[in-house]
Amino acid sequence: MIKILRVLFIVLFLALFVSAFLNPAKPETNILKAVLQENQKSELIINLSNQFSSKINVLIEADEEKTCETISKDFVSKIDNEFFKIKKVDYASAFKMYEKYNQNFLSTNTRTLLLNKDYEVVKQQAFERLINPIGFSVLPLEKDPFLLFTDYLMSLSSNSQIGSTINYNDKYYMYLSLELGGNSLSPTVINEKIKELIKVSEEYDKIYLTGVPIHSYYASSKSIIEINVICVLSTIFLIALFFFYFRNLKLMLPAFLSLTLGMAGGYSLVSLLFDKVHVLTFVFSTTLIGICIDYSLHYFIEKDLKKIIKSLTVGLLTTCSAFVVLTFSGMELLKQISLFTIMGLASVYSFIVLFYPLICKNIFKDYERKISFNIKYKKIVLAVLLFVIVLGFLKLKFNDDIKNMYIPSKKLLYAERLFSDVTKANHKTSFAIVEGKNIEEILQKEEVVADSFNEYQAISKYIPSKKRQLENLNLREELYKKSLEEYASFLTVEQKKNLLNVNKNDLIEYDNSSLLSEFMFDKNKSIMVLYNAENKEYTMPEGVEYIDLKTEISSKIKDYREQCISLLLPILLMLLGVLSFIYRNFVKAVRIVVPSLFAATFSIGFTSLLSPINMFHILAIFLIVGFGLDYSIFRASGVKNSTSAVFLSCATSVFSFLLLAFTSFKLISSLGVILSVGLLTSYILSLVLIPKAGLDENKESI
Asked: Which pLDDT value is given to residue 162?
């Protein structure tokens, strides 16, 4: 039977692995896709985030204006212009259209004055523009005596700073905007291109790069280095463990083989069930390393599968029970983590049970080492833990801002602040998605929204709807009738007559305008960028959806955090049910669960003293309960050498997670802190709350 099961395991595992290898899932690095469900609004949020976070800001600093321009041209000539598309806000290309239809345009300020019939104010502003020594007139005065068209062009956009020099604090700055080319390219290619861009920028004294792609590059590059260092240190730790404790490095071969099979099994299953595997699935699933090594350590120390098979099986069932509940969540990331962990543990368990007796029997060496700790002052330990829990929960706060999971370096923070100060781009941004049957309907809806905002960017700001154009012509005509004779005495009678003779059928045909591509999602949807709008009270017209990315994403993360918290009780009940069924003793089941549950509560309380709690801290509870439960199960088993095995298992897991706590990526470091604290506490509580000889002897009580 064992031989048949071995063959069956090999066949099934190879079939699963080959299937995943031939049809591998694509890696997903977008953090938003980890927390947003697949629906129309989530897709819209992700697309918006990608569209407005794919650009790189380049800020060139110099003491003289000409030097700034020279450096800019030299810098542009050295970068990959095929990959980094230089965004140019060049209204000159559209100027012919503006000039032809100049009477159809009015600035928001002038339009409001004309609607309110404040003609005296309009005349006063027009006169000030006329006599301004540094002012200018785009059109001859006989065509635009009030300089209304000039006023409109001047009001268009602050983005005209792109590609021009800016004087700030006695320094000159050139601001360039680079768009990433090739959206389908892999993160590896993008990182390589950004690396080349950074290398070019470092050839100059003061070129500052900002934007999401730059932050992503530095964060991922530093994380890769740190993870590699952690892997090396963890490997050295394991080598030292096998050398000094077992005096046998050969045991590392089956240990690492089981670990490799576990990771391969978990990945293969998730790869087959999902089109994309999120990078955070791998981050969380690396916790498998600790529990996989634990199973091997128990076998190496006891050397007899029969003595530990029950504890191994119970540990597998309880850990899988803690994760199987996650498959019922609405969050794809949780489902992936759950399936990855369950399959990984099942693969390791099966390999140890089926193959370790075969491959390990000739590589053991005789030794007799015991490691054990007893907690003498149990009441003091419990009192300290309870004190931290109470103090932590009194200070408990939740932070669902996705930015809280990443803290940039001081260099990047300085660059971001400088860019914000120089370009005055420190406004808060939100969006309105406008849907219509055609461009005219979209523009009309945009104009209704725009009337509620002072600062915005939209296609309607540059091309009015035909309805708005006709209104502008009527307002202009009314102004001319009321004020032209008195104000424009310098014009001839013929020139005044021409101004009053307005062709109201001469409206812009905008369907083929190149400006549409800047703001259109598709032929039926446009994007309005709204600035500092989150505190305004407004009602959007039908067909317009307001989206504040930060609020929307935080709301989704909050929903999932609350969903994770709601799953804790079902998991607890499932664990109690499984243990009660196996041991036929509900009290014993409670005693086994209490240390891990207490440890998870303590880890949250302890973490809340350091920082607010986020969704990923809540996820760590599942890992602490699922993995920490094994300490109690093995200690309660009463197996001869289980004490040493449990201690070594805890030491390897805590050491690995403690290393994660020193990484610069806050998401990973916060996980390292809470997991190392939680598992260490779970081990200590198993010593405090579970009698040394096992629960069956009932020599001690909680």
From this structure: 59
Element (H or E) spanning 92, and its range? none
Q: Which amino acid is at 159?
A: N
Cα angle value 176/180/182 (rounded, 5°): 155
User: Parallel, antiparallel, or unpaired for β 55-62 and 207-210?
Assistant: antiparallel
Residues 269-293, mean pLDDT to the nearest whole number: 77
Cα distances (angstroms) measured from residue 405 to each of 394, 501, 617: 23, 62, 11
Q: What does the pLDDT read at residue 604?
A: 94
For residues 252 and 243, is the Cβ–Cβ distance under 8 A? no
Q: Which of 260-274, 405-419, 439-453 has the lowest mean pLDDT?
A: 405-419
Q: Which residues contact 18 (CB under 8 A, 6 or more apart)?
A: none
Q: 627 has which bridge partners? A: none
- Residue 665: partners with Cβ closer than 8 Å, 6 or more residues away: 219, 222, 223, 226, 406
Start-end of H helices in 79-211:
95-100, 108-115, 119-131, 148-154, 187-201
How far from 207 is each of 219, 279, 420, CA to CA, in Å? Answer: 20, 32, 15
Tell the residue number behind the tokens 């066949």, with chain if given: 11
The pLDDT tens digits for 642-676 are: 778 888 888 888 888 888 788 777 777 888 889 89
3-state secondary structure of 291: helix
User: Tokens 């977008």 identify what position?
Assistant: 30
117 phi, psi to nearest 5 deg: 60, 35
How far is the C-alpha of 241 from the C-alpha of 651, rounded, in Å? 10
pLDDT bin (cut points 50, 70, 90) of residue 186 is low
Give yes or no for a contact between 673 and 661, defined as CB atoms under 8 angstroms apart. yes
Q: Helix (H, G, I), strand (E, B), or coil: what is residue 355? A: helix
* 665 within 8 A of 673, measured Cβ to Cβ: no
CA distance linking residue 195 with residue 203, whole number of Å: 13
Indicate the pLDDT class of residue 10, thresholds 50, 70 and 90: very high
Indicate the SS3 state at residue 279: helix
- CA gap 666, 674 in Å, rounded: 12
Q: What is the pLDDT of residues 207-244, one digit of tens each?
A: 999 888 888 788 777 777 777 787 788 888 888 888 88
Distance, in Å, from the CA atom of 212 to the CA atom of 54, rounded to the nearest integer, reads 7
- Angle of helix 549-583 relative to helix 615-637, nearest 10 degrees? 10
Q: How far apart are CA 385 and CA 395, in angstroms?
A: 15
For the packed helices 642-660 and 666-689, what is the interaxial angle rounded to 10 degrees? 160
Over residues 359-417, the pLDDT tens digits come to 887 776 666 566 666 777 788 889 999 999 999 999 999 988 877 767 778 888 888 88
